[in-house]
Amino acid sequence: MPFPNTVHYGWPAGFPGAWAGQNPQRMVVPGANGFRAGAGGVTIAAFAWVQADGATVLNKPDATTPTAAPTGFVVRSQQGLGTRYLQENTMTIAQGFMVVLASGGDVFALATTASVTGQAVYASLSDGTLQCAAAGAAPTGTVDTGWTVAQGAAAGLPFIMTGPLAVARSTASSTSGTGN
Fold first, then answer.
1. Whole-prediction pTM value?
2. Which of 48, 82, 148, 165 is the 20 to 30 Å CA partner of 175?
3. Which superkingdom does the taxonomy of this entry point to (predicted)?
4. Does 5 fall in a domain?
């Protein structure tokens, strides 16, 4: 690892891929074998897609569904990685390692565009990176994620985005006598 050559006088508001608060957090539930990073690894703080096998995760959609919405956002969540070959910090989860995908909640992220509160968050179909724009105005080569900007920032700086949470269960009464 090279010697640091920059001094930052203040901490950023948050770190990309980290939870921004303790509001409800929603995770994508994996199958019995969990989610694993595919060939080339998976970038943290980017959107990712579960591939056709149901376990492999990549920062691009499966070839059979090239314009599908991402499965979730890759959060910073690694447990028990105490190996010497991982001594240097990186924002890539190595191939074969566990991946955790968020499907809702408040997280810090980086976008290649400026983000303004209320804008929609879009994911690049080639690498899962984020771009922000008005709802319904997807930038070329992106897909709507269903997430929105909760606290904006300049391009390349951490902003907070919020993802959809579970839809509330219907409370309408049932006339069949079987419940909701």
1. 0.84
2. 165
3. Bacteria
4. no
Any residues with CB less than 8 A from the CB of 166 and at least 6 apart, and which? 26, 104
> Measured between alpha carbons, how far is 95 from 126 in angstroms, rounded to an integer?
18
User: Do β-strands 56-58 and 36-37 pair in parallel, antiparallel, or remain unpaired?
Assistant: parallel
Least confident range from 48-57, 93-102, 107-116, 163-172: namely 163-172
Measured distance CA(47)–CA(43) in Å, rounded: 8
177 belongs to a structural domain: no
Residue 169 has a pLDDT of 47
Burial bucket for residue 70 (CB in 10 Å: 0-12, 13-18, 19+) = buried
Give the chain's domain count.
1
Task: Give per-residue pLDDT as tens, 87-113.
Answer: 666 889 989 999 999 999 999 999 999
Q: How far apart are CA 24 and CA 96, in angstroms?
A: 29
154 has which bridge partners? none
**Across 2-68, where does the E strand assignment appear?**
26-27, 36-37, 42-43, 47-50, 56-58
**In-domain check, residue 20:** no
Residue 52 belongs to a domain: yes
